[in-house]
Specification:
The complex is a heterodimer of chains A (311) and B (312). With 311 residues, chain A is mainly α. Chain A is built from 14 helices and no strands. In chain A, helix 2 packs across helix 14 (274-305), helix 4 (81-112) runs parallel beside helix 7 and helix 4 packs across helix 8 (186-196). In chain B, strands 1-2 form a two-stranded antiparallel sheet. Chain B contains 16 helices and 2 strands. The two termini of chain B are 39 Å apart. Classes of the chains: A mainly alpha (311), B mainly alpha (312). At the A-B interface, helix 2, helix 4, helix 5, helix 6 and helix 7 of A face helix 2, helix 3, helix 5, helix 6 and helix 7 of B.
Amino acid sequence: MAESALPALAPTRRFRFSTQTLILWLLLLPVVIVLAAPVWYMIAKAFTPEANQYKFPIVWTPDPFTMRNFEIILGDRALPIFRWMLNSAVVTSIGTLLVLLVSASSAYAFARLEFPGRDAIFSVLVISLLIPGVLQVIPSFLLMRDLGKIWSDLGLDKNPITGGAVLKFGLDGYPALWLPGMAGAGAIFFLRQQFYSLPKELEDAAIVDGAGRFRVFWQVAMPLVKTALVSIGISTALGFWNELFWALIILSSREAITLPVGLLVLTQSGYVQRGLAFSGAFIATVPPIIVYAIFQRQIIQGMTTAGLAGR
Amino acid sequence: MAATRALPGSPRNIDRNSFSYRLRKQWPNYLFVLPHLVIFAVFLAWPILSSLRISLYDWKIMLPPDKQNFIGLQNFIALWKDNIWAKTLNVTIRFTIMTMLLNISFALMVSVALKQNFFGRSFFRTAFFAGSVLSVSAAAIIAGRVWDPQRGILNYFLVDVFNLPRIQWLGWPTTVLPTLSITTVWWTFGFPMLAFLTALLNIPESIYEAAKIDGAGPRETFFKITLPLITPTMLFVVSSQFIAHMQMFGQSYALTGGGPGNESRTVWIYMFDTAWKFFRIGYGSAMAVMLALIMLIGTRIFFFLFRSRFEY
């Protein structure tokens, strides 16, 4: 009885059809259609033969449906697009894990542990967040080049394991893509707040039970910030997956480049076939779209709370 | 906790706040921050500092650091006289202002609409943000076909459907920057939109009800209540948008290559060419330092503007 007396306060998730709904749909739907039309066009043309790419009036469906563009792209040895996708997947997954590991342990220490100079170090990290990335690209490039020289002086680039892109320091190696990302303090800043807002009792109980500092961090605190880790992990992963400038500078061998760089190869250097570019763009866009569809809520949460909304 | 554990009548009175005592007791805690700190020092702090140093040298890419030729502020003097630098800075600032205005107003409008509780809201939220997961290369491939002068989607509607004159979207000096700006909004407005949406949803409904009772109209409510209440988010969005667009690279690089002429050549592209095509490392670093300085001043101004206007 009490509930029905206060209908306005009871949070209801049921929508009533109203004129407001109708107006919003009439306003928003055309905008969505205009924004999505080019993407839909890309998908349709990815499955359209080259001869019909430029057909007017515009046909908005595959015309006729064909897998030819994908066959050409996958059959061309100069365009190893699956290799690029694999490279992107390796760069993204390992890079994200490294960023999360390094940032989470550091963030936990800044939130919970005490050591001399803690607050001074943290304020240096916060100041670094304000410095534009443009300042670091040239020296970072020189640094990576010099590291590569050391790597080859040690003979490590001849070894099939340490000479592969995944472990090779220097140019054409993925550590050069990961290290600047791991050095950033954005994830630490965000995760520190998450650790800080956890109730301390759980960790204290674990300490009383005799757990060491690291076990408390790894087995008690980490599971409690899982949502935040997923959010920050997704935005980090999106950054690695889409990185163009830095990948363009570090990676030059056709075998080592990632998808965003590879897509530029598809559009430049004589590959002017539109169908190929569209099927390449399609292949490059499918994984992030799937990830987005699955983790939609965490992505939106992560983007808004992590403060990484700048691009 | 440590104090309660201390034995009564311990032989020496130990100062538990002293640096050496804390260091002895707390040093294992450094292990938590050490991996990041080492990487931070080598791959972020050091590059930033050495950027300042390199900008004072006529840095040759093949020479070791101790053989480089110190030239003082000559790179900056050369920059001052460089017409292309002035042009690229002009392009970058115009692009940034245009894109910020478009992006923020569009994102604000959409987020106000999506704040309402209506059937299909989550569909629209998903749809509006989806474009932001595209990489800049994929976005450029798609946008390239929209703006193509002969065979593009937009000119098809203009010329073939509505019989209007053909527009060289990316080919004319006057249209190229607005076109890139609209492309950027299409591709990135999801980020500011989400930030605004979160801020709007955090405003308690009771404030709006109170305003309604006091007879405030929708326009008054928006400008007098909504906007002031989302000031912190606005500051965050304005400064992050500013930082992002001042460093624009991919859109121009992939769509126009900086052309026609230098009309869409941003500072970042000029720096890229200077350092990686002509190997003028010192000169490129001077550009980076100047751009960073301008950006720091810009963000400072935004902070000042937003703080002085809305003091609680």
